Amino acid sequence: MKKYTWRKLFNDVHLWLGIASGLVLFVVCLTGTIYTFRDEVEQLMAPEKYHVEVPANAQPIAPGKLIAQLEQELKGKVVNLNIPEDKASTYTVGVAPAPSTEKGPKGKGGEQGKGGHGGGRPATYYVNPYTGQVVGTPESATSEFFGTVMRLHRWLLIEGDVGKIIVGTSTIIFTFLVLTGLVLWFPVKRKNWKQGLKIKTNAKWKRVNHDLHNTLGFYSSILLLIMALTGLCWSFEWYRDGLSSAMGSEVFKGRREKPMTIASAASTATPEDYIQQTNLLLPYSGDLRLSLPTDDTTAVVVQKSKTGLFALAASDKVQLNKHNAEPLQVEKFSDKPLNEQIVSLIKPLHLGNVYGTFSKILYFIACLIATSLPVTGTLIWINKLRKKKKPSKATRYGATPVAS
Question: How far does CA 308 lie from the centroid of its chain?
């Protein structure tokens, strides 16, 4: 009887966990692959919403004038304005419903929500910065498709917590699959370790399939672990809280952060002043996002981020006095402790845009490999089952054993 070794244990764990979760992981990895280049695909399908022709010797409309024009046309209050560094890109504008002047019963729309715009969610518009013309909104058949892809990725289109739990549990299993796969990648004989780094394309299809599973899984293992460990933050609150405690910084803290409170006063500052002050405090080229409060006691928040092929998906943040544009707080990403930097990058680490287009390409390839692993792994398992059931040569030819 053969001795049951640690390697055999890891092999069995890898095999049966893979069989148990293979279909769910295939769907999750496939949708993750499709979602990687969502922004690029949407821009490709509707370029008129994202790009404009720059008129000769023209300058964009001053932000203050543009905001006033949009508020008059859209009958609302501009609460955020995205100004890209690329001069041929449209601005993204968030417009909240205009404050209601009518008083009504509590809970029936009579009270204004926080921020003084009736509590309505801001609508997003794409605007030509040279003409002020609204050229589109995020809603489209493409965005609806990617919305479905995301819901399939997050909870398999199953409403409630059931789908989220299934995906989260499968992601935990996927983490163990990657770890046990790394153990199995190392050959029994150390001198043969180089075999796991290449695919023997001139071999039989079974060997090629094995190499595709073994070699590609090894090369993508680090990125797959990052995807799995960060993805669990959306699945389980206990995991998110545990990671926050272990890292010493709250995951998704930015969702609950509120702008600073200031004293009410007469306002003399303009959006141009906010931009000028931010550029003085953060003297580099990049995209700007202005968050403009609708009341007189909330600070203006301006976020600035660098762009480019290898740009880090992190922004610096400046809080300014709404009334005179004086700086209240400057938060530079580079000044944050390492643990806070890592935690603040959870989302881009999962989505793949942590280092711009460069990391997106790597993530797309890794996701594509991850999608193939359940397929190649299942084929390996089926081939082993057939090998076990294959009759011996003596049985095939009807030979009878000779008694000794």
Answer: 18
3-state secondary structure of 275: helix
Tokens of 135: 């050229």
The helix/strand/coil state of 373 is helix
Alpha carbon distance 235, 164 (integer Å): 6
- Residue 355 · residue 303 · CB < 8 Å: no
Contact indicator for 71, 271 with CB cutoff of 8 Å? no
Q: For position 384, what pLDDT does the model report?
A: 85
Predicted TM-score (pTM) of this structure: 0.87
What's residue 255's pLDDT? Answer: 85
Domain locations in the chain as residue ranges: 18-38+144-249+356-388, 47-139, 253-336
Helix (H) or strand (E) holding 212: helix 205-219
Q: Quick one: tokens of 102? A: 């009518």
Structure tokens at 314: 């992190």
Residue 385 is predicted with a pLDDT of 86
The amino acid that residue 208 corresponds to is: V
To the nearest 5 percent, what fractions of the chain are helix, strand and coil?
50, 10, 35
Query: Which parts of the chain register pLDDT below 70?
Result: 1, 99-120, 390-404
